[in-house]
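Ticket #4471: structure output looks truncated?

Reporter: J.K.
Steps to reproduce: submitted the chain below (433 residues) through the standard prediction queue, then opened the result file.
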Amino acid sequence: MRKIPFSVQILLGLVLGVALGFLARANDLSWLTSTLDTVGGLFVQLLKLAVPPLVFTAIVVSVVSLRGVANAARLALKTLLWFGVTALIAVGVGIGLGLLTDPGRGVTLDTAGATAPTRTGSWTDFLTGIVPTNPVGAFVDGNVLQIVFLALVVGAAALLVGEAAEPLVAINRALLEIVQKALWWVIRLAPIGTLGLIGNAVASYGWDLLAPLAKFTTAVYVGCAIVLFVVYPLLLVTAGRLNPLRFFAGAWPAIELAFVSRSSVGTMPVTQRSVERLGVPREYASFAVPFGATTKMDGCAAVYPALAAIFVAQVFGVDLAVTDYLLIAFVSVVGSAATAGLTGAIVMLTLTLSTLGLPLAGAGLLLAIDPILDMIRTATNVAGQALVPTIVAAREGTLDRAAYDSAGRRSPLAPTDADAGPRRSEDLTPAPA
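Returned output as attached by the reporter:
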């Protein structure tokens, strides 16, 4: 299997999973469906197991690593700015597509039986949920938002303390290396996980279930595809003066894994390695990618809630005004961080619906097909998480153009030069014009 490219392995798992899923559904093979569900579930469970220590150690180390990066504050600010810009464009695509397709018009669903999700989002989730009452509890509960907060505080404090904090930083670096090594073992199981996840999805969600929501499902996939293959390439060409084909060649393994695993954080090691292969300096990539994996969600927090809000409004017969569309854009750009420690797109949707005054039960109508939608949403999220540091590095003059032009020629599971150690800080300083 090592001789077969990683992307081909995942593709083979995808094809076999679809075939087994159709076989299980056509012949009502409950044992096969259960087996596929177990295989896929175990793969996702293994990914989630690594999330708390991975997020904490990665952010602590990345913040401390900014010590060796020239103009670190400016880089961080530009990263946040581009996060906001791309999110605004993505939500614009979602709103425009929703107005064009009217995904909820003519849809007949039993709204009386719809109930709100058990976990919903509100603006207080971000304010009250960011600070843990118990640091240990944040890790036990897997609250990513609180873990990010703790890691940022520890990393910033260690950065200011300096030499005295080196033992703590060294421990975090060692833990990060151990967690990433263990996670790479899990990622190597991605083809098998893909088989189980896709097979179970095909076996569980047939056309009978998707038919009433076919227009909405199609709109979500088309919207994410527009962001992926139209918006991002245009930004690469205009803002970064980069060849989009080379970007997708380098980032595709991460995008592909995100599609099948439906986990931005679980995909983070592949995303970071892909970004480094694209020529982004390691010190900057180690900050931008972990931060983006918890807050940068163009699929879950921009395209999807925009389309879903329009869908719910149309199903319940509510007319949206221009101010409502502006609110959708505001919530998508500012409120996405509130979903980091919750349940992703569903909580982001309930946050959007509650801000617009729409029935939260509308989110319950979409729960049945959420796994199908989550695949393309997460792929879009991860592509955006790789795009922003690439563009920022290109605009700052620190992108290794030779590495970018050769991206995609080696497997993402192969070691990189960066694995031997971080680059020197002077390597990150732009050459004089």
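Triage note (M.O.): checked the attachment and the full token line is present. Residues 75 and 392 are 8 Å apart (CA to CA).
Status: closed, working as intended.
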